[in-house]
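Hi all, long-time lurker, first post. I run a small reading group and we've been trying to get comfortable going from sequence to structure in the token notation. Rather than ask abstract questions, I figured I'd post a concrete chain and ask someone more experienced to write out its structure so we can walk through it together at our next meeting. Sequence below, copied exactly:
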Amino acid sequence: MAALRLVAIDPDTDGGHCPALIVDDATGDLLFQGPQVTSAGELAEVDGLSPIGPNEIVDRIPARMRDVLLKALMEEADADAGTQRL
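-- Answer (accepted) --
Happy to help. Here is the structure in token form:
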């Protein structure tokens, strides 16, 4: 069984290079796939809020994914707790 599992994908995807949320079933860690922020201004602003470590990047997840991400995270939390949302 693979340790990584896709749990949410951009609802407006065309099937390639999509923003997505992936979970590592072995650790419970979340992986975000999305466009890397490269704007020096944006990176400086993020760094001012939460310092960016030398091995870290900042990904942009589109606002249109909020609902699908929230639903996926709630389902993951329910699965961890052994419950199911109605």
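A couple of things your group might point at:
The chain has a mean pLDDT of 88.
The two ends are 28 Å apart (CA to CA).
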